[in-house]
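Practice problem 4.
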């Protein structure tokens, strides 16, 4: 636990970490809240699903745009206005949508809320790189950030469910927007955020490391597709082997595995390079998902199998984040991180889209087997292109 203590003992990082958790909560709250509010407003679950998709795609585009702006102007000048825009969109959606009564308006404002979610996680990632001088402690910081993010995203839908009971779907949307606005303002007002200064760009450095970053983006998009297929296949397995209510606990087991992996990774010092850790995680993930395909004939076996999947996939995010320290130019670190996140999100959306068809035609076990094959293909690509992932030191 020494690495975690080293991170938490840095005074300038404590409030930004808290703001990061606060900024991640609205992702889970609004994803569910927007869906339920659009359904309540229109009576159509299809429109609700489209509204949630619009929010997700807006978030994917927003993190990339904010990453570029943060690299140029710093988080203090970006996060506060974007968070305020998200909060304003939430109020507009709930106040004006009943009068407008058009699904297109709901979709547009939902996308606007996604665009405005402040990129607190990306900003925190850059602050960790700038503030922590020891590489081992930085890795612990990245692991801590991953754990806090997973906890916030896991908690978000639970908070949304409570808010729906207390104040209805519209109240959940407004609350999520206000939390996003507060998180952006809190992060922007921290000393570390206000003291951050952009670094001058170095075209030579960017060109030298561009190939490795492209490989990393490819791997993250591929893992997103695989994860998206798994996210559809698991509820299908629950419906066939048990009930729809089993879907939540099954998915929670995978998230729990990711959290345990992140905590374990940051609690000890690793001698492996980030590239080696990433490839090892891909290897273990392919095996774990293949085992899940085998175990998916029994509901009791699915629970430990999915925990193992989370345990094996968790290090991928930490290793990918650590690789950016060598693959991305310092002047574009925030943009590189947000681009990586966006590739994963788009990949997950593609996986969700094709996962339904795969599950219908091949069954949930066949879909899981294909997800494992995709991870194996990514591993083969990563091994063959490993030199690009390990450029000369800065």
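Answer key:
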């Amino acid at each position: 636990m020494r690495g975690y203590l080293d991170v938490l003992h840095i005074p300038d990082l404590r409030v930004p970490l808290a703001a990061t958790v606060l900024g991640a909560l609205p992702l889970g709250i609004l994803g569910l809240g927007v869906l339920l509010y659009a359904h309540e407003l229109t009576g159509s679950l299809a429109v609700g699903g489209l509204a949630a998709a619009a929010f997700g795609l807006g978030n994917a585009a927003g993190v990339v745009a904010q990453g570029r702006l943060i690299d140029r102007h710093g988080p203090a000048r970006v996060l506060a206005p974007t968070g305020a825009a998200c909060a304003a969109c939430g109020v507009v959606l709930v106040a004006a949508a009943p009068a407008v009564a058009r699904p297109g308006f709901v979709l547009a404002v939902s996308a606007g809320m996604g665009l405005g979610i402040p990129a607190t996680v990306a900003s925190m990632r850059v602050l960790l790189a700038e503030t922590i001088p020891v590489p081992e402690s930085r890795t612990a910081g990245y692991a801590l950030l991953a754990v806090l993010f997973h906890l916030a995203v896991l908690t978000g839908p639970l908070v949304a469910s409570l808010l729906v009971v207390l104040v209805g779907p519209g109240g959940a949307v407004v609350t999520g927007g206000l939390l996003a606005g507060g998180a952006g303002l809190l992060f922007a007002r921290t000393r570390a955020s206000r003291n951050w200064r952009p670094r001058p760009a170095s075209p030579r450095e960017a060109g030298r490391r561009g190939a490795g970053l492209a490989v990393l983006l490819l791997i993250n998009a591929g893992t997103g597709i695989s994860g998206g297929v798994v996210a559809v296949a698991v509820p299908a397995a629950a419906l066939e082997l048990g009930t729809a209510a089993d879907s939540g606990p099954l998915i929670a087991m995978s998230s729990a595995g990711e959290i345990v992996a992140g905590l374990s990774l940051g609690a000890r010092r690793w001698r492996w390079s980030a590239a080696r850790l990433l490839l090892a995680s891909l290897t273990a993930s392919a095996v774990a998902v293949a085992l899940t395909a085998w175990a998916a004939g029994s509901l009791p076996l699915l629970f430990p199998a999915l925990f193992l999947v989370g345990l094996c996939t968790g290090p991928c995010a930490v290793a990918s984040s650590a690789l950016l320290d060598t693959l991305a130019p310092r002047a574009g670190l925030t943009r590189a991180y947000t681009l990586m996140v966006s590739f994963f999100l788009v990949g997950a959306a593609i996986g969700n889209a094709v996962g339904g068809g795969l599950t219908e035609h091949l069954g949930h076990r066949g879909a899981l087997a294909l997800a494992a094959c995709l991870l194996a293909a990514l591993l083969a690509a990563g091994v063959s292109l490993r030199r690009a992932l390990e450029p000369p030191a800065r």
